[in-house]
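W.,

You were right to be curious about this one. When I first looked at the sequence I had no strong expectations either way, so I just let the prediction run and decided to look at it fresh. Below is the sequence, 224 residues in total, followed by the output.
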Amino acid sequence: MNALQWLREPSQGAIRPVCAVFGDDTYLVRESIIAVGRVVFPDDDQGAGISRFPGAVTALASVLDEARTLPFFSRKRLVVVDDADPFVTKYRKELEAYTEKPCESGILLLQTKQWTSTTRLAKLVEKVGLAIDCSSPKEGDLVPWLSELARARFDTKLDAEGSRLLLELVGPEAGILVAEIEKLSVYAGESRQIERKDILKLVGAGRAETVWKTLDAALAGQGR
Protein backbone atom coordinates (compact mmCIF):
# COMPACT_ATOMS: atom_id res chain seq x y z
CA MET A 1 0.00 0.00 0.00
CA ASN A 2 1.19 3.49 -0.85
CA ALA A 3 1.96 5.56 2.27
CA LEU A 4 -0.11 8.54 1.10
CA GLN A 5 -3.11 6.24 0.69
CA TRP A 6 -2.49 4.71 4.11
CA LEU A 7 -2.20 8.08 5.84
CA ARG A 8 -5.34 9.35 4.12
CA GLU A 9 -7.52 6.55 5.51
CA PRO A 10 -5.56 4.21 7.81
CA SER A 11 -8.71 2.70 9.30
CA GLN A 12 -9.48 1.07 5.94
CA GLY A 13 -6.38 -1.11 6.13
CA ALA A 14 -6.85 -3.93 8.62
CA ILE A 15 -3.76 -4.39 10.78
CA ARG A 16 -2.31 -7.84 10.28
CA PRO A 17 0.17 -9.73 12.52
CA VAL A 18 3.23 -8.69 10.46
CA CYS A 19 3.76 -5.25 8.91
CA ALA A 20 6.54 -3.78 6.79
CA VAL A 21 7.05 -0.03 6.59
CA PHE A 22 9.74 0.70 4.04
CA GLY A 23 11.22 3.51 1.97
CA ASP A 24 13.42 6.59 2.15
CA ASP A 25 10.97 9.34 3.12
CA THR A 26 11.58 9.90 6.85
CA TYR A 27 8.34 11.81 7.39
CA LEU A 28 6.16 9.17 5.72
CA VAL A 29 7.91 6.39 7.65
CA ARG A 30 7.35 8.11 10.99
CA GLU A 31 3.74 9.05 10.27
CA SER A 32 2.91 5.58 8.92
CA ILE A 33 4.19 3.89 12.07
CA ILE A 34 2.24 6.34 14.24
CA ALA A 35 -0.90 5.59 12.18
CA VAL A 36 -0.40 1.84 12.67
CA GLY A 37 -0.21 2.44 16.41
CA ARG A 38 -3.43 4.44 16.38
CA VAL A 39 -5.27 1.69 14.52
CA VAL A 40 -3.93 -1.03 16.85
CA PHE A 41 -4.72 1.03 19.96
CA PRO A 42 -7.71 3.24 19.05
CA ASP A 43 -8.71 3.84 22.66
CA ASP A 44 -5.77 2.70 24.74
CA ASP A 45 -2.53 4.35 25.77
CA GLN A 46 -0.13 3.49 22.95
CA GLY A 47 2.94 3.87 25.12
CA ALA A 48 2.06 0.85 27.24
CA GLY A 49 1.58 -1.49 24.30
CA ILE A 50 4.40 -0.47 21.95
CA SER A 51 7.96 -1.77 22.16
CA ARG A 52 10.79 -0.61 19.87
CA PHE A 53 14.10 -2.30 19.10
CA PRO A 54 17.15 -1.16 17.08
CA GLY A 55 17.48 -3.59 14.18
CA ALA A 56 21.28 -3.52 14.00
CA VAL A 57 21.91 -4.95 17.47
CA THR A 58 18.74 -6.81 18.51
CA ALA A 59 18.43 -10.58 18.60
CA LEU A 60 15.40 -12.23 17.00
CA ALA A 61 14.51 -14.07 20.23
CA SER A 62 14.11 -10.76 22.09
CA VAL A 63 11.74 -9.41 19.45
CA LEU A 64 9.59 -12.54 19.22
CA ASP A 65 9.43 -12.96 23.00
CA GLU A 66 8.15 -9.39 23.21
CA ALA A 67 5.59 -9.98 20.45
CA ARG A 68 4.25 -13.01 22.33
CA THR A 69 3.99 -11.20 25.68
CA LEU A 70 0.83 -9.19 26.29
CA PRO A 71 1.21 -5.89 28.16
CA PHE A 72 -0.94 -5.14 31.20
CA PHE A 73 -4.37 -3.69 30.43
CA SER A 74 -4.15 -4.31 26.68
CA ARG A 75 -5.19 -7.07 24.30
CA LYS A 76 -2.47 -6.27 21.76
CA ARG A 77 1.23 -5.49 21.59
CA LEU A 78 2.99 -3.68 18.76
CA VAL A 79 6.67 -4.51 18.38
CA VAL A 80 8.62 -2.20 16.06
CA VAL A 81 12.08 -3.06 14.77
CA ASP A 82 13.64 0.22 13.60
CA ASP A 83 16.27 0.30 10.84
CA ALA A 84 15.60 -3.40 10.34
CA ASP A 85 17.55 -3.98 7.12
CA PRO A 86 20.38 -5.91 8.85
CA PHE A 87 17.82 -7.64 11.09
CA VAL A 88 15.88 -8.89 8.06
CA THR A 89 19.07 -9.99 6.30
CA LYS A 90 20.27 -11.94 9.33
CA TYR A 91 16.97 -13.60 10.27
CA ARG A 92 15.17 -13.86 6.94
CA LYS A 93 14.38 -17.59 7.18
CA GLU A 94 13.16 -17.32 10.75
CA LEU A 95 11.00 -14.29 9.87
CA GLU A 96 9.47 -16.22 6.98
CA ALA A 97 8.58 -19.04 9.37
CA TYR A 98 7.12 -16.59 11.90
CA THR A 99 5.06 -14.80 9.24
CA GLU A 100 3.50 -18.11 8.21
CA LYS A 101 2.42 -18.76 11.83
CA PRO A 102 2.43 -15.43 13.67
CA CYS A 103 1.33 -14.70 17.20
CA GLU A 104 -2.33 -13.68 17.29
CA SER A 105 -1.98 -10.97 19.94
CA GLY A 106 1.26 -9.40 18.78
CA ILE A 107 1.93 -7.20 15.74
CA LEU A 108 5.49 -7.27 14.43
CA LEU A 109 6.45 -4.18 12.40
CA LEU A 110 9.68 -4.15 10.39
CA GLN A 111 10.89 -0.69 9.35
CA THR A 112 13.40 -0.91 6.52
CA LYS A 113 14.91 1.24 3.78
CA GLN A 114 14.91 -1.61 1.25
CA TRP A 115 12.06 -4.07 0.71
CA THR A 116 12.31 -6.27 -2.38
CA SER A 117 8.85 -7.40 -3.41
CA THR A 118 10.15 -10.55 -5.12
CA THR A 119 11.54 -12.14 -1.93
CA ARG A 120 9.60 -14.87 -0.18
CA LEU A 121 9.31 -12.78 2.98
CA ALA A 122 7.82 -9.82 1.10
CA LYS A 123 5.34 -12.10 -0.66
CA LEU A 124 4.29 -13.62 2.67
CA VAL A 125 3.81 -10.19 4.23
CA GLU A 126 1.80 -9.08 1.20
CA LYS A 127 -0.39 -12.15 1.57
CA VAL A 128 -1.02 -12.25 5.32
CA GLY A 129 0.26 -8.88 6.54
CA LEU A 130 0.49 -5.23 5.58
CA ALA A 131 3.24 -3.54 3.55
CA ILE A 132 3.37 0.29 3.45
CA ASP A 133 5.57 1.89 0.79
CA CYS A 134 7.15 5.11 2.09
CA SER A 135 9.36 5.80 -0.91
CA SER A 136 9.63 9.42 -2.00
CA PRO A 137 6.21 10.13 -3.56
CA LYS A 138 5.59 11.32 -7.10
CA GLU A 139 4.50 14.92 -7.52
CA GLY A 140 1.26 13.82 -9.19
CA ASP A 141 0.32 11.89 -6.05
CA LEU A 142 1.24 14.74 -3.73
CA VAL A 143 -1.05 17.37 -5.28
CA PRO A 144 -4.39 15.83 -4.16
CA TRP A 145 -2.86 14.60 -0.90
CA LEU A 146 -1.73 18.10 0.09
CA SER A 147 -5.18 19.57 -0.58
CA GLU A 148 -6.80 16.82 1.49
CA LEU A 149 -4.22 17.24 4.26
CA ALA A 150 -4.90 20.99 4.48
CA ARG A 151 -8.63 20.31 4.80
CA ALA A 152 -8.50 17.35 7.19
CA ARG A 153 -5.69 18.40 9.53
CA PHE A 154 -5.79 22.21 9.40
CA ASP A 155 -9.38 22.93 8.34
CA THR A 156 -8.05 25.08 5.50
CA LYS A 157 -8.73 25.09 1.77
CA LEU A 158 -5.78 24.59 -0.58
CA ASP A 159 -6.68 24.11 -4.24
CA ALA A 160 -4.74 22.04 -6.77
CA GLU A 161 -3.04 25.14 -8.21
CA GLY A 162 -1.77 26.06 -4.76
CA SER A 163 -0.53 22.52 -4.16
CA ARG A 164 1.38 22.56 -7.44
CA LEU A 165 2.94 25.93 -6.60
CA LEU A 166 4.08 24.61 -3.22
CA LEU A 167 5.63 21.60 -4.90
CA GLU A 168 7.41 23.86 -7.39
CA LEU A 169 8.87 25.96 -4.58
CA VAL A 170 9.65 23.23 -2.05
CA GLY A 171 10.02 20.01 -4.03
CA PRO A 172 8.47 16.61 -3.24
CA GLU A 173 9.59 16.62 0.43
CA ALA A 174 6.51 15.49 2.36
CA GLY A 175 7.66 16.62 5.80
CA ILE A 176 8.68 20.11 4.64
CA LEU A 177 5.45 20.50 2.66
CA VAL A 178 3.36 19.65 5.73
CA ALA A 179 5.27 22.21 7.79
CA GLU A 180 4.69 24.86 5.12
CA ILE A 181 0.96 24.10 4.98
CA GLU A 182 0.73 24.42 8.76
CA LYS A 183 2.44 27.82 8.58
CA LEU A 184 0.20 28.96 5.74
CA SER A 185 -2.92 27.77 7.58
CA VAL A 186 -2.02 29.88 10.59
CA TYR A 187 -1.37 32.85 8.31
CA ALA A 188 -4.72 32.39 6.53
CA GLY A 189 -6.51 32.86 9.83
CA GLU A 190 -10.29 33.05 9.80
CA SER A 191 -10.51 32.97 5.99
CA ARG A 192 -9.45 29.28 6.09
CA GLN A 193 -8.19 29.72 2.52
CA ILE A 194 -4.55 29.47 1.38
CA GLU A 195 -4.11 31.88 -1.52
CA ARG A 196 -1.45 31.81 -4.22
CA LYS A 197 -0.18 35.21 -3.07
CA ASP A 198 0.25 33.85 0.47
CA ILE A 199 2.37 30.96 -0.84
CA LEU A 200 4.54 33.33 -2.87
CA LYS A 201 4.93 35.66 0.12
CA LEU A 202 5.65 33.14 2.86
CA VAL A 203 7.25 30.25 0.98
CA GLY A 204 8.53 31.82 -2.23
CA ALA A 205 10.30 34.69 -0.50
CA GLY A 206 12.02 32.32 1.90
CA ARG A 207 13.21 30.08 -0.93
CA ALA A 208 14.47 33.07 -2.91
CA GLU A 209 16.40 34.33 0.13
CA THR A 210 18.01 30.90 0.54
CA VAL A 211 19.07 30.89 -3.11
CA TRP A 212 20.58 34.39 -2.84
CA LYS A 213 22.47 33.47 0.34
CA THR A 214 23.86 30.38 -1.39
CA LEU A 215 24.95 32.45 -4.40
CA ASP A 216 26.51 35.09 -2.17
CA ALA A 217 28.47 32.44 -0.28
CA ALA A 218 29.64 30.87 -3.53
CA LEU A 219 30.73 34.24 -4.94
CA ALA A 220 32.53 35.12 -1.70
CA GLY A 221 34.43 31.87 -1.97
CA GLN A 222 35.43 32.59 -5.55
CA GLY A 223 36.73 36.02 -4.60
CA ARG A 224 39.34 34.64 -2.20
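Here's what jumped out at me. The CA atoms of residues 23 and 135 lie 4 Å apart. And, maybe more interesting for your project: Residues 196-222 form the longest helix (27 residues).

Coffee later to discuss?

I.
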